[in-house]
Amino acid sequence: MKHNSIFKIIAALSVNCLLSVSVTHAQSVLHIASDDWCPYICAQNGHLTSGYLVDVATQAMLISGYQVESALIPLTRAMHEASTGSIQGVYAPPIDDRLRLSIPIAYSRACFYTLAEQTWRYQGIASLHNVVVGIVGEYGYDDNLMDAYVIKNQHKHLLIDTSFGENAGLSNLKKLLAARFPVMLEHEAVMTMLAKNLGAEYKIRQAGCLEHALPLPIGFTKMDSHNEDWIRALTLGIQQLEASGKLAELRQHYHIPEINTK
């Protein structure tokens, strides 16, 4: 009977150890999602495979033992899934009370673009009052005056032309090239890649940029009590990547401009 009791205790301890390992492993895998927004978040064949935010998050979190699995999900759906705890985070979300935001992994400056032969220039919000601007729906541009302008005028089709969907940025560039609207607003690094892929670099011109750059954090679900641990791990990892020079290498690889936010 004593031996049976000992065996039962050992068996119970073994099961507890296995469960503990399983729980620890589950907590160390983070599912972070968003839609295609290259060069920050890049998709290929229906999967998020790379991008500046994806690579930085993956490498930074690995330093603290977290494995990041990235998923290609439309931004609105990704926000909902993170808010319910179905996934752990969202790349570059808009400000939303449902998420806990990390420090910015990058800052992105949005600029206005016209056809190369045009002369219009952005000179503050007042210069937009008689111009139709093409934008991507549900995206942020500066967390400031421009975002407020879009919200105020989003249903005024003589001021705002909105595209939706995973190819909304490309759709807007094609509309601009076809002169369906005179001005397009897009993040600088994103537009550089869109124009290059479409062979349109010399068909458009930059016509001024917004005064405030948009911070690009990861938004973590509030439904998991580990979110503070994840934010600390990401912050620590980014600091170590910066110190090692790897962050600069990634910026160079993805042609991410360094933006002074001070």
SSE map:
Elements: H1 2-28, E1 29-34, E2 42-44, E3 47-50, H2 52-62, E4 67-72, H3 75-84, E5 89-91, E6 99-101, E7 106-108, E8 110-115, E9 133-136, H4 145-153, E10 160-163, H5 168-177, E11 183-187, H6 188-198, E12 204-209, E13 214-216, E14 218-221, H7 227-244, H8 246-253
Parallel strand pairs: 1-4, 1-5, 9-10, 9-11
Antiparallel strand pairs: 2-3, 5-14, 6-14, 7-13, 8-11, 8-12
Helix pairs in contact: 2-7
Quick one: biggest sheet? 5 strands, mixed
- Stretches where pLDDT is under 50 for at least 5 consecutive residues are 1-26
| Helix-residue proportion | 25-40%
The CATH architecture designation of the largest domain is: 3-Layer(aba) Sandwich
**Structural class computed from helices and strand pairing:** alpha/beta
Mean pLDDT: 90
How many domains in all?
Answer: 2
Report the C-alpha radius of gyration, rounded: 22 Å
In spatial order, strands of the major sheet run 4-1-5-14-6
Looking at how many chains there are and whether they match, the oligomeric state comes to single chain
Organism: Solimicrobium silvestre
Protein name: Bacterial extracellular solute-binding protein, family 3
Keywords: Signal
Description:
The protein is an alpha/beta fold and 262 residues long. 40% of the residues lie in helices and 23% in strands. Helix 2 (52-62) packs across helix 7 (227-244). The chain is globular, with a radius of gyration of 22 Å. The model is unreliable at 1-26 (pLDDT under 50).
